Amino acid sequence: MTPSPSTVQVAVHTPSHSGVGDLLDYASERPLAPGTLVRVPLGPREVLGVVWEGASAPPPPGRALRPVAAVLNGIAPLDAPWRRLVAFAARYYQRSLGEIALAALPPQLRDLGPEQLARRLRRPAQESEPAFATFLIALSAEQESARTEILSKPGPFLLFGSTGSGKTEVYLRCVQAVLEQDANAQALVMVPEINLTPQLEERFTARFGAGAVVSLHSGMTNPQRLKAWLAAHSGQARIVLGTRMAVFASLPGLKLIVVDEEHDPSYKQQEGARYSARDLAVWRGREQGAKVILGSATPSLESWHASRPPTPDDPEGGRYQRLLMPSRIGAGELPRVRRVDMNHQPRRTVFSAPLLAALQERVERGEQSMILLNRRGYAPVLHCADCGWKSDCPHCSAHQVFHKLDRTLRCHHCGFTVRVPRACPGCGSPDIVPIGRGTEQLEEQLGELLAAVRRPDGSPVRIARIDADTTRAKGALESQLAQVHAGEVDVLVGTQMIAKGHDFRRITLVAAVQPDGALFSSDFRAPERLFALLHQAAGRAGRDAAYLAAQGTRCEMWVQSFHPQHAVFEALRTHDYPAFAAQQLKEREEAAMPPFAFQALVRADARTQAVAQGFLAAASSAAHAHGLPGLDQVSLYPPVPLTIQRVANVERAQMLLESGSRTALQRFLAHWQPVLQATRGQPEHKGLVRWLVDVDPLTI
Ligand code: ADP
Ligand code: ZN
Ligand code: ZN
């Protein structure tokens, strides 16, 4: 007798707005446990899927279900907490369940057939228990108290520790304690950028042994990712280090999550499903009973507010516990902040005389300096003084950036590249000049300005540049950073890439030569972000107190500005994040902005701005016409063009949604999704290319 087939519901990757439901029904010879990985037919293809509910009801009469093609038997089903995380993320960020589930799995799992996979799984995994170091450096009193609190209280914790206060050491100790307590426990440690993983990986493998630690980030090859993912999923890897994508790793024994530099915008995915890995980490930790540590010297205002201590007016306080580590290890001091008022400098000054003198001094003493400018290329635009021609990108509402080294004009938005013209394309004048400056130009000018300066051994100064242009090749960034660590560079010029997280030991001067751009941005988060960037950059200096003492040097952070008295620089000078945060939060509260309100954006891309805005306006009217639930507590603002309104010949518009209640906003979005889809189908919106929802957007 053949057993009657059962129906299984399978999550597959259907495009989020395709109108196909989240889960598809298939027939299976035998019931399959939820979380089982399967291959199923979808249209003409066969794709990877995850069994969601193992409902064993017979297929509905008159409907022949396609059968499951194969079951990936070698891999244990994904557990219920993982499936709940995926389901929550899909719901919260308005995506399909299948999209999130499949994107969370290593790409090779999708591509390999069951036989190939079985072969892969037969390769013996080297079992290796973490080796717990018995000799450990003594923790500072602040570190010790943070560790004790974390291990004895439920959290989530915001570890507010100065740059160089030894936060990483606290993470290491907490991971160790959690793993020692439970032989199946696992820890997830996240960092914002791939370029921070090698140094962290080194510290964790030095402490726990290479076999216990795996990494998960987009810089790995697909076979590497599959291997690491399987090690985490099987419980064999005890520690997973990774970037935002690692928040979706399958970790059956998860007991601790660390989100280092939790303020960093890179935790927010900016395409596809626009999730916040930090926020999901907090959700996952609570749901799965894992402790969560968010660490930063410049916390996001959201996390700072969420960790406010109780007061008589606010007896509850925030839902996070705030832990303080104000002191640098080894009594190292934070750099002295020196502001140069550029109003008193000759016009077009790039390096003011006092900054140049300070740089020269550092080089002569054999110390390292770092120059920060958040713009790559030689100059942001070429200009003809005769006819006013500018190097505009023909496909975007943006300039093409002048790159002098390879004589190109490149659009940083769409990638369109042309050779630099010999004469003005408008009037033929040979007199076209670069306006403004980027890192390439800084590097060139510094080379000229410091040409005569000698290092202690009499050799000339060595200048290096690190930005997205110099680090395109695989491994380039690692080798460039290694040169800085090895002391083979005297002055490092770079973009924000160099400002974050690195434990440079011999940098004694950091300078931001032109930070004013962000002061008057229309984005309400711009001051917060600028402060974080400059404070983090300053934190790269003076990290080794013994070195400073031996050199007899004080470390310095220089800021050149036309608005040196601005509140951001004032707060930077006093290293007073709490005061800065208090002032910013007060403004946010008065203006009913996050974290005192909740936002979502709907964006529309179309052939014309009218179509993009028309679609948004129609979807907004439809929401009102239907009187959708939650709408009474949600404000819908009129559609507006994006700051860079056209990219690659596509016009972009967006509409802001705001609510004092996260629940109301979520309820409204859930009901609005089908309305948006229906609106898209209407003939008058034919030129619409795509639309998307961004919940808790980081840039407005
Ligand atoms: P953070 O992550 O807060 O910026 P790190 O954890 O990188 O700081 O620590 C800064 C430096 O101080 C590192 O080189 C680290 O090895 C060292 N360090 C941390 N804790 C201690 C300690 N208790 N005793 C001595 N050195 C320490
Ligand atoms: Zn011209
Ligand atoms: Zn372009």
What is the strand and helix layout of this fold?
Elements (H helix, E strand, L loop, with lengths): L5 E7 L10 E6 L8 E6 L2 E7 L18 E2 L8 H13 L4 H7 L3 H5 L2 H9 L18 H12 L4 E5 L5 H15 L4 E5 L6 H12 L4 E4 L5 H12 L5 E4 L11 E7 L16 H12 L2 E6 L4 H6 L14 E5 L10 E6 L11 H12 L3 E5 L8 E4 L16 E3 L4 E3 L6 E3 L12 E4 L3 H11 L13 E4 L9 H10 L5 E4 L12 E6 L13 H13 L6 H7 L4 E6 L5 H8 L2 H14 L7 E9 L2 H18 L7 E3 L3 E8 L2 E10 L2 H19 L7 E8 L5
Helix pairs in contact: 1-2, 5-6, 14-16, 18-19
Bound molecules: adenosine-5'-diphosphate and zinc ion (2 copies).
Describe what this molecule looks like in 3D.
This protein has 700 residues and is α/β, with parallel strands linked by helices. The protein folds into five domains: 6-122, PriA, 3(prime) DNA-binding domain (GIY-YIG endonuclease), CATH 3.40.1440.60; 141-329, 3-Layer(aba) Sandwich (Rossmann fold); 332-376 and 438-590, Rossmann fold (3-Layer(aba) Sandwich), CATH 3.40.50.300; 379-436, no CATH class; 598-695, TATA-Binding Protein (2-Layer Sandwich). 31% of the residues lie in helices and 21% in strands. It is built from 19 helices and 28 strands. The strands form six sheets. A seven-stranded parallel β-sheet has the order 8-9-7-10-11-6-12, sandwiched between helices. α13 (476-485) links the parallel β20 and β21. α14 (526-538) packs parallel to α16 (567-574) and α18 crosses α19. The termini are far apart. The mean pLDDT is 91. The structure holds adenosine-5'-diphosphate and zinc ion (2 copies). Residues 384, 386-387, 389, 424, 426-427, 429 line the site of one zinc ion.
